[in-house]
Amino acid sequence: MPTAVTPVRQLHPHAVHELTEAAQNLLSSTGPLKDDLDWSRLLAQVPRTAASLSADIHHVCRPVDSAAGLFVVRGIPVVDETIGPTPRHWSSAGRAGALYDVVLLLLSTVMGTPIAWEGQQDGRFVHNIVPSPGHEAEQTGASSSVLLSPHTEDAFHPGRAHLLILGCMRNHDAVATTAASVREVRLDAADVALLSEPVLPILPDDAYAEAQSYTGTPPAVPTLWHSPNGLTLRFDPAYTPLEQGSAEHRAAYSRLTDELTRVSVAVSLEPGDVLVVDNDLVVHGRVPFRARYDGTDRWLKRASVRVPHRRTRPAAEQDEHGYGQAAVEAYA
């Protein structure tokens, strides 16, 4: 898998100072906070602060503008010695890296509307993605020893994010995030037509235990469709019951999988890098690595963003039940 020459948007030092100072001021203005951050008090102030950020920051946060479907914002300082040890589980992170939680919230708010999930990480708007003992072989962000298969983030849900944002806190082992854009694959028209039919469902992943017990009928969804700007996808083979499809459908799905593998690139994030992925164009994953659980493992922050008035998805998604899961908008 090639290492990507990823589009990079460099923050100027004055913009970095402005952004981090704004985040620190937000943290200070909320007064004493619980260990898990009192988001309701802090979130109330984020939109106005985000709107007041300079044109330089807003320009860096402009929409994805290449077929690669992603970019990296670079320049935010993260000092390894001061952020504390990598948590062994998201629930033990507390306020670790709280400044960077707020930095991601500000960037997310410039790009759109941050969302949280009632059924994941206690409804937080910024998640801690760390390897966790006992979860090594799962297809979730807490895994380590297995390839995290390329997938659309929260593909099972019609309210999934338009943008996935990953901020790197620590990555001593240069563990790569994988990414592949549907705009760079080569498929014939017959395969595109077949995969544009709603044939199979995408089931909730292991991070949503409550959704996995939902008793409603799983809705069949298309894997591909044409949006106003080009081909778009919704893809999660680890949670798609492919054995229920016809031989023709499985063959077309396999060719798409092979093409995504062919165009896949490895993005090794450095501390302070913020990777922005268009969740309608790009499937992402992660290469396997050996977790040490000694406080030095890979540690990412994750935010999910909806882009208001974006029209990239089939109208039929509005009728899906979402397996009983609710996405909560930060500023609804």
Summarize the structure.
By secondary structure, the chain is of the alpha+beta class.
Written description of the protein model:
This protein is α+β, with helices and mostly antiparallel strands and 332 residues long. It has eight helices and 14 strands. Strands 1, 2, 3, 4, 6, 11, 13 and 14 form an eight-stranded mixed β-sheet that branches. It has a four-stranded antiparallel β-sheet with strand order 5-12-7-10, covered by helices on one side. The chain has a two-stranded antiparallel ribbon with strand order 8-9. Helix 1 (13-29) packs across helix 5 (98-111) and helix 6 (189-195) crosses helix 8 (247-263). The longest helix is centred in the first third of the chain and has 17 residues, at 13-29. The radius of gyration is 19 Å and the shape is globular. 41% of the residues are buried. The model has no long low-confidence stretch (mean pLDDT 93).
Q: Roughly how many Å is the radius of gyration?
A: 19 Å
What is the typical, i.e. mean, pLDDT? Answer: 93
How many individual helices?
A: 8
Shape: globular
Point out poorly predicted stretches: none
| Residue share in helix | 10-25%
Number of distinct beta strands: 14
Strand and helix map with partners:
Elements lengths: L7 E3 L2 H17 L9 H5 L2 H7 L2 H6 L9 E5 L23 H14 L1 E5 L9 E3 L18 E4 L11 E8 L5 E6 L7 H7 L13 H4 L11 E4 L2 E4 L13 H17 L1 E4 L5 E5 L3 E5 L12 E8 L20 E3 L3
Parallel strand pairs: 1-2
Antiparallel strand pairs: 2-11, 3-13, 3-14, 4-13, 5-12, 6-11, 6-13, 7-10, 7-12, 8-9
